[in-house]
Design brief:
108 residues, 0% strand, single chain, 4 helices, 2 domains, mainly alpha
Length: 108
């Protein structure tokens, strides 16, 4: 028998998005859920999964920074010091991207 549009499984099967993904459950309070959805709406066109991916990468960066800072032997940086360091890193990355882009343009 052909599974056509009148077959129950035809409508109930969801198409999976490209790439390997995992589904898991997270319990948060209503306010947190609202904040996550609002932030996902602003940054990822409403895609909460993309926001969670971004947050996990940022968490790993923060953890690596803290590990390096402990290795260095200094006290934990204040929020202001962290922001200043991050801004300096971002400025360097922007300059590197700009330099890299101009090299590609010249070669072409």
């Amino acid at each position: 028998m052909d599974a056509g549009p009148n077959c129950a499984t035809y409508f109930s099967m969801k198409k999976r998005r490209a790439g390997a993904t995992e589904t898991f459950s997270v319990s948060v309070d209503r306010e947190t859920k609202r904040r996550l959805r609002r932030l996902a709406g602003r940054k990822h066109h409403g895609n909460v999964s993309a926001l969670i991916t971004e947050l996990s990468v940022e968490g790993e960066r923060q953890e690596a920074f803290e590990r390096a800072w402990r290795w260095y032997g200094g006290n934990q940086p204040t929020l202001e010091e962290s922001a200043a360091i991050r801004a300096e890193w971002e400025e360097g990355w922007n300059l590197a991207r700009k330099t890299n882009k101009s090299r590609r343009t010249r070669a072409a």
